[in-house]
């Protein structure tokens, strides 16, 4: 919502006691279109709101510049290009700052104002005129210094950061705040953040746009939040253009936001953010954060139990190698190295079988042991992912399982690994990954489920926790095998996702045929019934024709007793969780599991437990 009681009027910057308002010789005599626009006072400031993402209130405005409407120079990009072409970067930027301050002063606004200024221009202005002149300019236009935020741009070009920090310290002592623009766009400087300690840092729109769809962007934002906490800096998310992105950024705890969804740049300041944004702010339902499809186990090799095994050299004899194996009874193999570089691996069993043959020691004992080496050993860098070792398990060359593999650090020999260690580490890695994302359905696993429940509980919103489980699934799985059993589980996963609002409702796969659905949608009751009905309709196709005709299958129960099992159906137990009633994710899961058990016992497929 905009101020309507002020009509935009041409700005007059005459008698401004500062060189920023004075037109240089280049502007006065320039023949380019930008010089003409500056001389004719044809450029105008516009203001875009910066809002609090916690309640939607207007926190500040950013001043931007626009050329005449319906001309090629209306957009800021065209103006910047013209400034570079006419060599008027300094004059153009000074003019924009002056226009912004003058217009804001005419509005007599009491709120904060963000004004863009490049680090180079700020340094030049303060170097030649000093901080007192800048403060005088601000005061001349009736702007309160403590309500002004200088938004530093193009700071990647700063050659003397120490000097910039010094001059900024002078203006900060007068109450002016500092912001860094477009942090994370590849040009920003973490050192500058640390050195200047700005009150505000704006996150580049690359990381905020479509954040509701990309888990890696969320991880990046969370990393930036950790840095901001260290430096006590408030973050502003730029480029918010959709309701879903705004909700995610709000739920992540980003304090301020800016973008078209909240308000487009306008000649007059805003009183309220756009009505659609206001409505979204009032809706306190928790957003569903996208999950990484696969949890990275990068660096897992660093935790791998490396065998600190001795090595042999190219000239080591067979007798010396035999003595080494005898003195190290548990050593399964030994690496052959050339300097620090491993070139082969010798299997203990293979070597000792040869060494124990008749006359071997007499004929071959003093000759190099290299003849027994596998000269194509598997070399694994210590910083590699454990998953990279899966190729050893699936390789047709079983020597790698018997010999194990050589672990290196930057190509230098570190130690050995065994096939047994490999199987154990890969299994542990996969189990840990499954806690984050189920490998069959790719739905969030136990850890993300608990994290989302915690977010719901901490927000105080009402939600419905549903526990879904298949009836008579084990005999079906035993009868038709795991492949068809997996198909049935994937069918349930697809139906659960299809009957949920992806931005409001969370679907998680606990494991096996157990699923959790956390509803914030008002139509949750109907959606649950739709899932049950649709599953009953589609799951029949996974049975053979005789089973479909009989309405079930004959199989042994868990006690080995033959019996008839009806066709597989779905049961869902639901519990309404009201804000403040429960404290932990474990409590929610426990109550939902009891509701699921009652749904299965009731035989009707659906049970609602009033908490």
List the helices and strands and how they pair.
Elements: H1 25-29, H2 33-39, E1 44-52, E2 58-66, H3 76-85, H4 89-107, E3 112-118, H5 119-140, E4 148-153, H6 161-172, E5 177-183, H7 190-196, E6 200-203, H8 205-208, H9 215-231, E7 234-237, H10 243-252, E8 256-257, H11 275-282, E9 311-313, H12 318-327, E10 333-338, E11 341-347, H13 348-355, H14 360-364, E12 379-381, H15 390-394, H16 399-403, E13 405-409, E14 412-417, H17 419-436, H18 446-459, E15 463-471, H19 473-480, H20 482-498, E16 506-511, E17 514-519, H21 524-539, H22 545-550, E18 552-556, E19 562-566, E20 569-577, H23 585-602, E21 606-610
Descriptors:
alpha/beta, 21 strands, 3 domains, disordered N terminus, 5-stranded mixed β-sheet, 611 residues, flat, CBS-domain, 8-stranded mixed β-barrel, single chain, Alpha-Beta Plaits, TIM Barrel
Describe the overall structure.
The structure is a single chain. The chain is α/β, with parallel strands linked by helices and 611 residues long. The chain has 3 domains: 19-282, TIM Barrel, CATH 3.20.20.450; 300-428, CBS-domain (Roll); 438-610, 2-Layer Sandwich (Alpha-Beta Plaits). Helices cover 41% and strands 20% of the residues. The chain contains 23 helices and 21 strands. The strands form 5 sheets. It has an 8-stranded mixed beta barrel with strand order 1-2-3-4-5-6-7-8, surrounded by 5 helices. Strands 16-17-15-20-21 form a 5-stranded mixed sheet, with helices on both faces. It has a 3-stranded mixed sheet with strand order 9-10-11. Helix 5 (119-140) runs parallel beside helix 6 (161-172) and helix 19 crosses helix 20. The longest helix is centred in the first third of the chain and has 22 residues, at 119-140. The chain is flat and about 100 Å long.
């Amino acid at each position: 919502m905009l101020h309507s009681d002020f009509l935009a009027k041409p700005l007059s910057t005459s008698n401004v006691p500062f060189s920023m308002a004075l037109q240089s010789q280049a502007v006065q005599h320039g023949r380019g279109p930008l010089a003409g626009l500056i001389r004719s006072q044809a450029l105008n400031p516009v203001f875009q709101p910066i809002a609090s993402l916690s309640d939607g209130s207007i926190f500040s405005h950013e001043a931007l510049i626009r050329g005449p409407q319906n001309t090629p120079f209306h957009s800021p990009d065209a103006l910047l290009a013209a400034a570079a072409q006419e060599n008027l970067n300094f004059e153009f930027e000074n003019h924009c700052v002056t226009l912004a301050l003058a217009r804001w002063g005419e509005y007599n606004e009491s709120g904060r104002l963000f004004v863009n200024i490049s680090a180079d221009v700020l340094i030049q202005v303060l170097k030649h005129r000093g901080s007192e002149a800048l403060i005088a300019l601000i005061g001349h236009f009736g702007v309160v210094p403590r309500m002004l935020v200088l938004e530093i741009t193009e700071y990647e070009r700063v050659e003397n950061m120490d000097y910039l920090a010094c001059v900024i310290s002078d203006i900060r002592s007068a109450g002016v705040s500092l912001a860094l623009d477009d942090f994370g766009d590849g040009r920003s400087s973490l050192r500058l953040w640390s050195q200047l300690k700005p009150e505000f840092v704006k996150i580049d729109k690359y990381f905020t746009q479509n954040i509701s769809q990309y888990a890696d962007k969320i991880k990046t934002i969370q990393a930036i939040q950790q840095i901001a906490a260290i430096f006590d800096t408030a973050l502003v998310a730029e480029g918010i253009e959709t309701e879903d992105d705004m909700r995610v950024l709000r739920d992540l705890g980003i304090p301020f936001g800016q973008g078209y969804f909240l308000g487009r740049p306008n000649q007059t300041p805003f009183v309220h953010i756009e009505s659609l944004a206001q409505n979204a702010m009032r809706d306190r339902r928790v957003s569903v954060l996208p999950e990484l499809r696969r949890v990275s186990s990068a660096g897992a090799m660093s935790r791998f139990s490396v065998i600190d095994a001795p090595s042999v050299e190219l000239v080591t004899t067979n007798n010396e190698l035999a003595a080494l194996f005898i003195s190290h009874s548990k050593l399964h193999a030994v690496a052959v190295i050339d300097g620090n570089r491993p070139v082969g691996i010798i299997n203990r069993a293979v070597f000792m079988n040869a060494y124990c043959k008749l006359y071997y020691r007499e004929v071959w004992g003093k000759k190099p042991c290299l003849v027994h080496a596998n000269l194509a050993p598997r070399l694994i860098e210590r910083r590699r992912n454990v998953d990279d070792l899966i190729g050893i398990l699936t390789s047709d060359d079983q020597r790698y399982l018997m010999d194990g593999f050589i672990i290196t650090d930057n190509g230098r020999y570190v130690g050995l690994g065994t096939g047994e260690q490999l199987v154990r580490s890969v299994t542990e890695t996969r189990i840990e990954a499954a806690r984050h994302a189920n490998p069959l359905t790719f739905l969030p696993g136990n850890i993300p489920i608990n994290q989302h429940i915690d977010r719901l509980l901490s927000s105080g919103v009402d939600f419905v926790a549903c526990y879904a489980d298949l009836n008579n699934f084990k005999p079906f799985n035993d009868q038709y095998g795991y492949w068809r059993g997996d198909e049935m589980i994937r069918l349930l996963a697809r139906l659960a996702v299809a009957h949920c609002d992806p931005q409001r409702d969370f679907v998680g796969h606990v494991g096996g045929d157990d699923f959790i659905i956390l509803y914030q949608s008002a139509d949750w009751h109907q959606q649950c019934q739709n899932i049950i009905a649709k599953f009953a309709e589609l799951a029949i196709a996974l049975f053979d024709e005789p089973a479909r005709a009989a309405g079930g299958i004959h199989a042994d129960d868990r006690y080995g007793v033959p019996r008839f099992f009806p066709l597989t159906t779905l049961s869902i137990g639901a519990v309404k969780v009201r804000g403040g009633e429960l404290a932990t994710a474990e409590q929610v899961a426990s109550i939902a599991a009891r509701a699921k058990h009652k749904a299965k016992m009731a035989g009707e497929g659906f049970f609602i437990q009033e908490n």
